[in-house]
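Subject: for your reference before the review

Hello V.,

The reviewers asked for a structural picture of the protein, and I figured it would be easier to keep everything in one thread rather than splitting it across files. Below is the amino acid sequence we used in the manuscript, unchanged from the supplementary table.
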Amino acid sequence: MSATPSPLHRLGAFAAARRRTVLIAGAVLFLLAAAFGAGAQAALSLSRFEAPGSQSDTAEQILHEEFKDGSPNYVLLVTAKDGGTVDDPEVAAEGRKLTEDLAGREGVDTAGSYWSRGENSALVSEDRSQALVVAWLRGTATEVRTDLATITPDFTKDTELLTVRPGGQDEVFRQVGEETRRDFLRAEAVVVPAVLLLLLWVYRRWSAAGLTLGVGFFSVLATLAMLRGVTAFTEVSTFAANLALVLGLGLGLDYSLFVISRFREEMAATPGATDADRHAAVVRTVASAGRTVLFSGFTVAASLAALFLFPFPFLQSFAWAGIAVVGSAAFGAVVLLPAALAAVGRRTLRPGRAEPAVESGRWYRNTLKVMRRPLLYGLPVLIALLALGAPFLGARFGLPDERVLPASASSRVVQEEIRTGFAAEETDALQIVTTGEATGNPSSGSDYPERLSQVPGVFQVDTGSGTYRDGDRAGATSDPGRFEAGEHTRLTVVPDQEALAGDMAQFVERVRAVEAPYSEVHVGGFPAAMTDFRGELLDRLPYVVALILLVTFVILFLMTGSLLIPAKATIANILSLSVMFGVLVWVFQDGNLSGLLGFTASGRMEPSIPILMFCIAYGLSMDYEVFIMARIKEAYDRTGDNTSAVAEGIQRSAPLVTSAAAILALTFAAYATGGVVFLKELGIGMALAVLVDALLIRTLLVPAFMGLAGKANWWAPAPLRRLHARYGISEAPAAETPHQDLVEAK
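And here is what came back from the structure prediction:
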């Protein structure tokens, strides 16, 4: 009695039989996605490093609602010309007018300066040739940076008396956004033709290369369209569109390579194939390669979906993008591409002689060599991976600053001049908001700012009663009303340059540790916001990692019925990622190769980018693991011979995996030429992880391990074997797996 066709068999049969209908529907979807996705960039949002509900977030909300103010997010650096000082009457007059003009601009809620806040402010340089105008612009990051796009040109001035140049956190990150968009457009202009050439080299056929690139473009456009739809109910970061470009193209190409490779294999088994044979080959391709693509897609989607556990729209945006990319790439490869192969499949076949026998393949022979001497080949690879990953043990995570931009960026130049010329930076001040009257000793309320001013790293504390330095009152406050609003009191703790250059998180904790005589105290400001963001990020990281490891372990178990293979895959992936993180620390934290790559090392790494890279890279590593293990499992189900199954599986999958890895690495590496450090990290780290995984892990370490383990690779306890027999997905029916008795006996 014939077995009931699987859903994938039926899907392949439908795609082959209704190929014109499927292709017309695909073309309509492509056009709709292009039209709707074209407006995605305008619908997406810019993000800040914020932790909703944190102490810093509460402090900022009170400042906004009660004080009608906030932490300064924009600054003008004013420099007196011709040896003058900011105290010269003419310069001071222009400075006051500049402050008034900025305060009157739409979008600017508050503005102050050295000339409006008096001698005791930290807004004047040590040589008194420069002073600052600081402002707070209310609104989301998108609204503020949109306003700054018109404000900044108007306040970039060069008069007879002074020069004015804008900076501040939101101006820095506005320029980061602009630089990132330019970098991505430039990279894509290089990547697309380079990828096309690589595909032509792999396929030797224009039709196959065109179909593969078409699936990649479909994935990118469909993802952008879906992201625009998601913005209807939640915030999505503009950087998610950047991920859609690189990952959509990469996964679309990966999955198409796998499907077309399997189709060619099926066609090669039927010389002189008729149209009916070609349609049958499409069905078998979808049933086998389609299954692997879906398994692979689920692992990548699960890795990126784990980002939903972080309560930050910035990282959750990449989860949405990851799910959309995987869904659209898999749909294109398993539905649209098979229909195209049914229509023009003969044109995708490699010209020339027939494919050689598996046993005569180079990868087959090399795999047998590795499995005969697994320690000889495996140990050097293991030692090399551990050595490359060792620098990660010295990782230091900190707050990003203007050095993420190229050295020529105007806002970076401004911030660096402030760092070198000013004793402190009021734009990076901690904003302490208290509620209620001081309790205990009547003098304890005034004692609080004095004790704060004695904390190591504090330059001064500004309050409604005056300015305090090193425990002493240094002067009166020119604007006491700025520090009181109803039952709330505000204190501004200005850090010195040494504190800003050190561990800002420790500085924030030292300030928070000072006992306060109020019923409620909230410490905010940019350093506190970044500290809370980092703390929340690292607190949730173990849960994210555990979820990714668990889900991918279960997926591989369902595919293989083994416990050892998922465990091996987990260890191998961690080794691969350790290389990526080790190189990130060695290059971007410690500054090695900084001259060659064109960036300035800050001695620390912002943590959210490496976490994002972990989720992407782990998913892609499992992507290749699924590709290879699917072919090994298929051969093992047929033969029951571990050694020949591994060799055959690698022979059939390694050329595909290395080609896919080369294309994906090229796609990522193009972004290493960008000006923003975040993009350089993503480009170099991901390209390295992909290549190490494909060239060392999958082709040397995996066969060495599987050679050592032998038939134990396929072992699972009896209850799990029964679970897999019921819920697992296998290429061959149980009756056709002669190795089964051996596994159970084991």
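For the response letter, the relevant points are probably these. The first helix runs from residue 7 to 17. The chain has a mean pLDDT of 86.

Happy to draft the paragraph if you're swamped.

O.
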